[in-house]
Amino acid sequence: MSHKEIIHKYYSKLEKFDSDIKKLENNNELHLILNDPDKLHDFCKFLKQNFDLRLLTIICYDERKLNHGFKIRHVFGSDVDDFFLFVILSIDESHPYFPSIYDVFPSSILYEREINDMFGLTAKENPNIKPLILHDFPNDVFPLRKDFNLSDDVKRNLKQFEFTPITGEGVCEIPVGPIHAGIIEPGHFRFSVLGETVINLETRLGYTHKGIEKLAESMPINDAVFLSERISGDESVANSIAFCQAIEKIAKLTIPQKAEQIRLLFAELERIYNHFGTLGGILTDVGFPYGASRLNILKEQIMQLSERLSGSRILFGVNQIGGVKINITDEMLIDIHFVLDDAFQIFEKIFDLLKSNSSVMDRLRNTGIIEKQIAKDLGLVGISSRCIGIETDTRHTHPYGYYPSINLKQKTPRETMERQVELQKRIGDVLSRFMNRVDDLRQSKDIIDSITALKDDGLSVFMGDELTPYSSGLGYTESHRGETLHWIMIGEHNSIFRYKIRTASFSNWSIIEHAVLNNIVADFPVINKSFDFSYSGNDL
Amino acid sequence: MKKNSDKTNYLIDMSFKSATIKDPLKMNDTVAANYRGYVILDPDKDFVLNNETGKILENSCPTHAITYQNDNNDLKIHLDNGKCILCGNCQVKSPELIKITNKFDLAKKQRNDLIETFSMSVPFGKTYDELGQELKNKIDKIFGRSLAIREIDAGSCNGCEIEINALNNSVYDIERFGITFVASPRHADVLLVTGPASKNMEKALKIAYDSTPNPKIVIAVGACACSGGIFGNNYATTGGIDNIVPVNVYIPGCPPRPQALLYGILMAINKI
Q1: Contacts with B88 from chain A: Cβ below 8 Å
Q2: Which chain A residues have a beta carbon less than 8 Å from that of B165?
């Protein structure tokens, strides 16, 4: 189906809610303008009843200087069709409230808390409106409002954060973090335990908040690419591709096929080295250092390959608006295939060894189980959702870049059948996520293998004139953690008016609080590692 | 029975030759020729440094690491390695001026030492062999005792963490030099701090510093920790670790590769 037909399919039903709803179409995006914010709740109920849509993010921006007040865009996406729905609300400054939709789409709680922190707009009915990202900020300072300057010094008043009290006979609290025992990022976990068993976990993140979204507004768009790479160091390619795609959509640029191929190669290499690292991490946490060191050697090999290709071990500086900076020659392509063939041969051996090692499998199986309904409600993406059988993969549902042109080998009926049986075993435990990463790795290898020759049509195109002010675009990629969304609104003179980043980590983090319930404290590291969320990508 | 013997064969099969590199500080095959490390004004090329090229160079840097100065026709380029995020933009904009080498030994004990000044009259840089020889003597002398390191992430993008983790893998294997990563600052001699020191981590970093026993050494890792890097000094960051705790050694780079980290740690241990 073409984009037009898909949009028509959805709009013909949406019309029934309100026939004089204003609409705008743009490729695979449908924008609806709701004049009355109070209608939002009914509208969302209507959406939930009629379609299978997932809340992707809630974008807020400050247009008070243009006399439009605040705008809020609820973004919904389908996991079946290549379709995005934007619902636009206008909020007046004099009445800084907007309706919460937490009872229809529970994942909205986090986005509403974020908007409360950064813009000072409160979701009226939201039951949990604690600060999310800003720690110890005064109540009247909202960084993403336009009248707040990036370098303003904020007087902070240190106060105690209120965790939900869990009381009862024999219940203990274990505070962990923000500085952890391993070499990982900072975050605070408050366990309530009864004996060894975790009965409640509350996470408090935001420690790595660096003001990325605000900072981008003061940067020229070409420099902001470097910023997007540093949202999360291990997702640099996925994030910078999403950023570039958003700008390219606004500028209506078509980038060369070769650049698309190179982006794909780097994106898959990134996925491979990260999955090797995560699998190694899981093995470290269950006390199987032999497998962990083997996998870390593989990770190192891919990182050294990355360095030979791009000059950076974690693939910084690959993308630019309009294409890529790094050329891949035929010799380099042979190098990639050679290194990967070698690495995967060893990987399969290690994997066979792991499968037959009962001490590893026993620790992974039935640990950190998540429920399908909770996963759906929280809007999980990536590995975290695939481990319970919810197929979300941006590369399939919203094909971008060179992915639609990839022809993978067709599976025989027997293989498909075996795969179905295998998938039935995925119950959302650590083992399912482990196996899912293995699948992802093999798939990435197949994707890279399918690129045997590179096109010859240049590395990048030049972005011509000034972009239309206040036009916006959505860029999306599948990082190794899952769906990554970057929404950009251009301001005057090619500046960035609003840069909204929603990494997979942000929409996934809350599942950890459910996954550890009824597990023992000692299993928390392996459960956490099996999800492998980025703290920096969450806090921005 | 047969299956079991197959499994043991796997173990035998997997006795690969050692992956550990012999001397990580020596320039060898593990550093790719096109690795973006140390940025210099290219001494091999004829270039004209004038107001125009100077300004282009200055504007090409997203983190303002390059500043151009014209004092009575004494043309100077200041390059702050502590701010450089190794993006390579300056080389793209002025290929005739800038050369990016794969040198990684950039760590310095003073923040100001990271700022290099290139003028038209002074010869550039040191050769790698000179430094390598110097280092070799130090390594033999210093690693007689073990060193305990506590890593603290004060808001990094996790790029530096990947490289610090790589120090522990079998390839770099930092433990063979008697350096261990410990779980608490109370057990540590050295704090390895990354990130632009986000304001939300300020308190935690101070507490960790105070609970580290004396004598203690603080190493700022990465452009962010040295100067704030691309994030600079804004409402959420403090613009460098040294605004919160005293820093002994600065390791620039975005992120610094494992060898560069080792070089910086060596420099720090020299101070004891």
Answers
A1: 311, 317, 325
A2: 183, 277
Per-residue pLDDT tens over the stretch B102-148: 777 777 777 777 777 765 433 333 333 343 344 344 544 554 566 78
Nearest to B152 among A179, A226, A325 (CB): A179
**Lookup result for tokens 């241990």:** B269
Mean pLDDT calculated for residue range A192-219:
90
Whether the full predicted model's pTM is greater than 0.90, yes or no, is: no
Round the average pLDDT of chain A to a whole number and report it.
87
Smallest Cα distance from B142 to chain A, Å: 25
Interface residue A117 vs chain B (CB under 8 A): no
Burial of A372 (0-12, 13-18, 19+ CB in 10 A): middle
Give dist(CA A293, CA A367) in Å, integer: 23
Q: CA nearest B33 in A: which residue? A: A308
Determine what percent of chain B falls in helix, strand and coil, rounding each to the nearest 5: 35, 20, 45
User: Is B228:B240 a contact under the CB 8 Å cutoff?
Assistant: yes
Average pLDDT over chain B, rounded to whole? 75
Read off φ and ψ for residue A197, nearest 5 degrees: -90, 135
ipTM value, please give it. 0.89
Taking only residues 349 to 408 of chain A, the set having a beta carbon closer than 8 angstroms to any beta carbon of chain B reads 349-350, 352-353, 356
Residues in chain A with CB shorter than 8 Å from the CB of B163 are 313-314
Tell me the two tokens of residue B101: 């080498």
Task: Answer whether B104's CB lies under 8 Å from B256's CB.
Answer: yes
Question: What distance in Å separates residue A6's CA from the closest CA in chain B?
Answer: 38
Question: Tokens in use for A442?
Answer: 């093999």
Q: What pLDDT does residue B3 have? A: 47
Return d(Cα A29, Cα A6) in angstroms, integer. 10
End-to-end CA distance of chain A: 37
* Nearest CA among A226, A213, A241, A178 for reference residue A540: A213
- The answer to whether the Cβ–Cβ distance between A316 and B14 falls below 8 Å is no
The residues in A 263-302 lying below 8 A from B, measured between CB atoms, are: 277, 293-294, 296-297, 299-300
The DSSP letter of residue B114 is G
Cβ <8 Å between A233 and B157: yes
Q: What is the rounded CA–CA span in Å between residue A118 and residue B66?
A: 33
- Looking only at the bridges linking them, the beta strands covering B147-153 and A496-502 are unpaired
Write the pLDDT tens digit of every residue in A77-122. Answer: 888 888 888 888 888 888 888 888 888 888 888 898 888 888 888 8
